[in-house]
Design goal:
Length: 312
């Protein structure tokens, strides 16, 4: 019996035109760059019906046919200490981490890169909560391409209290985002439902039949090409900030999936969206005290922001 395979066919969006095949694959399917390169090398990726090398560039509208073999259990937790994950706080109920870019929160089909759950297992943290083993303790998520502070529940009681707090919108989730142009007004609220994109299962969009999604933003700095925003999430939809800012025609810098300018991304040296979870505040599930944790900008985002600040 042959191993299970997943077949997917997608069209390359304008924002990824000119990218290498492996980079475009990684961005569109949430694969690690290494895994994407392996699929190309194994002849499992066709561009407009033709096998290509990983360094070839894709053009807008090109048809990507991808076959992804399922190796072993796609959601098995592999204990592995991940370089770059910082422990911000640790006690009997919770562990708060600073997640670097390129790390998924938990294993999923198609993702073979590092995960937060795998790191905690490898580093000897005991997470004992109900639910699927690959998602134990997970009460919130950050995209692979988004860095910053997040909390994981270690005990069953903490898991249920935190899950409920997120559901009640009683958690303060503060992000900083560098977006193209200048939002008008400079501060505001985006109340627009989000659903899966009808043509791309790896993208989301504002749609009347979507889930209620509310984003508050405030401009911290306005520069020639971009603005630094402080964003407070009331809801927590997948890609929420990226989708909402794109809907305002102010996509996150470095986010071609949602319409960002690839020329500006190259100019500031980014190969991911400028989006960082800077602060997280909530009532501690054991003590009931309000606690807040913070994460500084990582080097790549700080460098990009410096370039924008210096642009005249």
């Amino acid at each position: 019996m042959s191993a299970a395979r997943e077949q997917r066919t997608v069209l390359v969006p304008e924002g990824l035109a000119g990218e290498r095949v492996d980079a475009a694959l990684a961005r569109m399917f949430g694969l690690s760059r290494t895994r994407a390169a392996e699929l190309v090398a194994d002849g499992l990726v066709l561009v407009d019906g033709v096998a290509v090398s990983k360094s070839e560039r894709v053009h807008e509208g090109a048809m990507l046919d991808v076959t992804i073999p399922q190796t072993g259990n796609p959601v098995e937790v592999v204990p592995e200490v991940v370089e770059g994950i910082n422990i911000v706080h640790d006690d009997e109920a919770i562990v708060v981490i600073d997640k670097p870019v390129g790390v998924a929160v938990h294993p999923s089909p198609g993702w073979t890169g590092p995960t937060v759950v795998g790191h905690l297992a490898g580093a000897g943290f005991r997470i004992s909560t109900s639910g699927a083993s690959e998602r134990q303790g997970i009460v919130q998520r950050l995209d692979v391409g988004t860095s910053g502070v997040m909390v994981i529940a270690k005990s069953e009681q903490a898991y249920s209290v935190l899950k409920n707090a997120f559901r009640r919108r009683a958690v303060d989730k503060i992000y900083h985002a560098l977006v193209q142009g200048h939002p008008d007004p400079l501060r505001g609220t985006i109340d627009a439902p989000i659903a899966r994109h009808p043509k791309s299962d790896w993208k989301f969009t504002v749609r009347a039949d979507g889930k209620a999604s509310i984003t508050h933003y405030d401009t911290l700095e306005a520069h020639r090409f971009a603005s630094l925003l402080e964003v407070k999430l009331e809801t927590g939809r997948t890609h929420q900030i990226r989708v909402h800012m794109a809907a305002l025609k102010h996509p996150c810098v470095g986010d071609p999936l949602y319409g960002a300018d690839p020329v500006l991304a190259r100019r500031v040296g980014l190969d991911r969206q400028w989006l960082h979870a800077t602060r997280l505040g909530f009532e501690h599930p054991a003590s009931g005290d309000y606690v807040e944790f913070a994460s500084p900008y990582p080097d790549d985002l700080q460098r990009a922001l410096d370039v924008i600040r210096d642009a005249h």
